[in-house]
Amino acid sequence: MWQEIGIALCLMLVLEGILPFVCPQRWREAFSQLLQLHDRQLRLMGLASMLLGTALLYLLH
């Protein structure tokens, strides 16, 4: 189980590094827009992301 968690974390880092590598200017603009969101909006986005990820894992498993 720990090996799978490690693999998942490594894949997450690879996926998150693609955008800043490919188009750093657009990534910087998107990040600056995220900084201007309220905490509630960020929490809702995080919750939606977690629920979507959980649903996709359930469907794929």
Layout of secondary structure:
Elements: H1 2-22, H2 24-35, H3 39-60
Helix pairs in contact: 1-2
Task: Record keyword descriptors for this entry.
0% strand, single chain, 61 residues, transmembrane helix, mainly alpha
Q: What does this molecule look like?
A:
This protein is mostly helical. The protein has a domain at 23-61. It contains three helices and no strands. α1 packs across α2. The radius of gyration is 14 Å and the shape is flat. The protein starts with a helix and ends with a helix. Keywords: Membrane, Transmembrane, Transmembrane helix. The chain crosses the membrane at residues 44-60. This is DUF2065 domain-containing protein. InterPro entries: DUF2065.
Give the overall pLDDT as a whole number: 93
- Give the H and E element order: HHH
Number of helical elements: 3
Low-confidence segments: none
**Which sheet architecture does the biggest sheet show?**
none
Rg, Cα atoms, Å: 14 Å
Estimate what percentage of residues fall within beta strands.
Answer: under 5%
- The overall strand count is 0
The helix content, as a percent range, equals over 70%
Secondary-structure content class = mainly alpha
Shape assignment: flat
Distance between the termini: 15 Å
